[in-house]
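Q: What does the assembly look like in three dimensions?
Context provided by user:
Components: two
Sequences:
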Amino acid sequence: MTDLNYDQTLHLKNIVPQRAIEEIDLWIKKYPEERKRPPIIAALKVVQEHNGNYLTEETMQAVAEYLDVPDVAVYEVATFYSMFHLDKVGRYVISVCNNISCSLRGADKVIEQLQSRLNIRAGETSDDGLYTIKTVECMAACAGAPMLEVNKTYYENLTEEKIDKILSDIAAMELKRAAVRSTIDDAASIEPSEVKD
Amino acid sequence: MTNEVCFRTLHLEMPWSLEAYESVGGYSTLKRIVAGELSFETIIDELKLSALRGRGGAGFPTGLKWSFMPRNLAGQKYVVCNSDEGEPGTFKDRDILRYNPHQLIEGMIIAGYVMNATVGYNYMRGEFYEPLERMEIALAEARKKNYIGNNILGSDINFELHNHMGAGAYICGEETALIESIEGKKGQPRFKPPFPANYGVFGRPTNVNNTESYASVPAILQHGGQWFLELGKPGNGGTKIFSVSGHVNKPGNFEVNLGTKFSDLLAMAGGVHGGKKLKAVIPGGSSSPILNADTVMNISMDYDAIGKAGSMLGSGAVIVLDETTCIVELAATTAHFYYEESCGQCSPCREGTGWMSRVIHRILKGEGRPEDLDNLDRVASNIMGRTICALGDAAAMPIKGFLKHFRHEFEYMIEHKRSMVKG
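A: Here is the predicted structure of the complete assembly.
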């Protein structure tokens, strides 16, 4: 790109793993070759997932370079859609629906419980960088209200016990992750999805 | 009878599999098309006869919409499915995608044939990772069988179908915003005309239908437009999936005949929970005006009857409210949603949704003023009909409905600084 401030060493291939590039390439193939913008949303989602759940100016510029579109086309998308985070968030983003159907079935209690267990308010990230609580609008799962989403997974028909189980499962996974980390040199390259039970 | 159309595989093991779908006659319509037994004119006639109306919310006759596509125009045309399910209270398309993806795929292939379009996009909301997985597996199965791809089953029909994902924006459920979003832009609605049938994705003719609409088509063509029409009532053909949520014992999706009594639908959902009394119902998603218990218990669930009662069938999202529901709180949640989701393009909607939300939240905090209610109603009226897309109306209508039917609850809260219901 022609942006003079752009650090040319920050090519997308240098900041996300090869499998992320391959995933983005699959999306690119879905659209007419002469159209460069359609894969922007998908590419940003993939990059965000591999960048600690949030986007930085550098990652957005790298996406723009990779897709051969102006930086502003990427900024425009990243700032419009609510699933993109432009500030640092937790490794586990907990999105709680507080729209009508979930409110009618106790979404406020879900939020309260999460806030007290994690010791943060909705909209905040825990000091250890693990959790962010976010309130979101209807996610089309009202039969299972109240519900929440952790990163890409829905949890429905929430009860106090269920929420505690979700949190303890995450904590257990984090312990395993730390164990794997201490035995591998290249610790930074470990993704949560690679830590299997 | 229930689950005869979009959910007709639901009783089978692995209802989402190709085997399950083929066992109920799936892809038989495509085979008839390939065999030259079904012309595009016949298909449009059958759809018109069936009285299938758009299941996304607007209720526009599907057969008529399909006839608008300029099939003989040279160049690319697109078939687009709106699976951006976001209308609060609606969760039916997610279940079609998860439990019967092949029927949506066949419906879109048929649309491609009718419109002479060789490419389709299924636009799913950004959180639908689980439905995406099911859809991708189903597409691979269909591709392997040559139901999609080039020269389908040896014919000269070509059709390729792609899943596209959003990233969190209610407005992308509006068809022109959805088209902008497929093009990789902000989801801001376009002026109409030109309509998508003339100027849609990448400036090419495009047909946009809801998931349930496309998925209804294979069943209609398999059993005939007359069969579908008779499931429902005149002008309101077929079945409809109602997503029942809120204060009921068994929330869920119920695919029933249009014209089913509301009281029967409520019984299917197990009745009002906790033995409480029914207070009111939002009959068609959060954009539809509320109906009080007396009205709703006496109506049937179809486009005309709900319209006559002063609301709309919308997306079929039925939100049930028991006697403990505070309407002011409900109004605040609703107003906040539209304020959050306004794309910001038109001043009446961008500013008006913020005003409505702030005024209602002020009342909720016990800081309401007597003149607030007239102001709310005036702001709502001034949004309506003054915006590019329907989001403005969708934001204003429910607020006007709450004020019309439950004004006393607002007045009580302004005067006593507490909820009339919750104390």
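Follow-up: Helices of chain A lie at 12-15, 18-28, 40-49, 57-67, 71-80, 100-104, 107-118, 160-183.
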